[in-house]
Amino acid sequence: MIVSTYDFTVAIVAIFITWSLYTQFLGKPTPFRSLAENAYIGVGMGMVTVINIWYMWTEGISPILRGEYWMLLAIILSIMMFSRIIPKYNYIARVPLAIAVGTSLGLALRTQINSNFILQVKAMIIPLWVDGNLYQTISNLTNIIGGLLLITFFIYTTEQKGPLKHSSQLGEYVLYIGLGTLFAQTFMGRLSMFTGYMQQITDPQWKIPYTIGIALLVFAASIIMDRRGLLEKYG
Fold first, then answer.
1. Is the pTM of this model over 0.70?
2. What percent of the chain has pLDDT above 70?
3. What distances in angstroms separate CA 46 from CA 4, 6, 81, 188, 204, one per listed residue?
4. Quick one: pLDDT band at residue 46, thresholds 50, 70, 90?
């Protein structure tokens, strides 16, 4: 199989950075992990800088050149943000910050009300019985009963005693089940990402020897440096 120099270089660098980052499982800082972290942050900042400059050109300067002079206000507000690096004039940055935060909060509030309140209420308005579909019936009953129990758990304006006490305790268990499910989904998602990336650095097959070899080299070097007390010096 013929592999281009570009693809080969990208694959080797990706494999080396991957195993360098995983040296954190040794429990000690290593020069490989430090190199990988610094490279990752540096490349990320470079990409963000280029993307932001391109965004300023396409969304700010280009419209001004086309005659949309009201975009000068956005440019001025953006420049005012840099006053934060000057202690004497950092108060000037409060104006664009207030505009940005207020606008973002207003836009987010609209979506939050719809997604976290209205849609949640609509999700509870479902039929208790679905003819011919026992699974959907059980699912609807679980959602309705679990939701009502959770609501009683978060009632703090009255003393929880009698039926309310028992329902709030059941609501607490429902909350634990929900949080446990979310944690399991997060773990499985991270595991899927790990599996997918391992497939990426082992497919096609010509990458496998390099993946195994670089892993052995990085971990062996880290262990040797640890035994000789060099990790504290170079980590």
1. no
2. 99
3. 25, 20, 20, 31, 30
4. very high
pLDDT band at 59 (very low <50, low <70, confident <90, very high): confident
Cα distance between residue 10 and residue 15, in whole Å: 9
Mean pLDDT of the chain: 88
Q: Are 152 and 164 in contact (CB under 8 A)?
A: yes
pLDDT exceeds cutoff 90 at 234? no
Q: DSSP characters for 89-149?
A: GGGGGHHHHHHHHHHHHHHHHHHHHIIIIIHHHHHH---S--TT-HHHHHHHHHHHHHHHH
For the chain, how big is the Rg over CA atoms in Å? 28
Contact between 221 and 212 under an 8 Å Cβ cutoff? The reply is no
Res 235 pLDDT > 70: no
Stated as kind and residue range, the H or E segment containing 170 is: helix 163-200
Burial class of 93 by CB neighbour count within 10 A (0 to 12, 13 to 18, 19+) = middle
- Could you give the CA distance from residue 190 to residue 147 in angstroms, rounded to a whole number? 28
Cα within 13 Å of Cα(115), Cβ side: 6
Q: At what angle do helices 163-200 and 134-153 cross, to 10 degrees?
A: 120
Closest Cα partner for 21 from 33, 10, 13?
33
Q: How many helices (H) and strands (E) does the chain have?
A: 10, 0
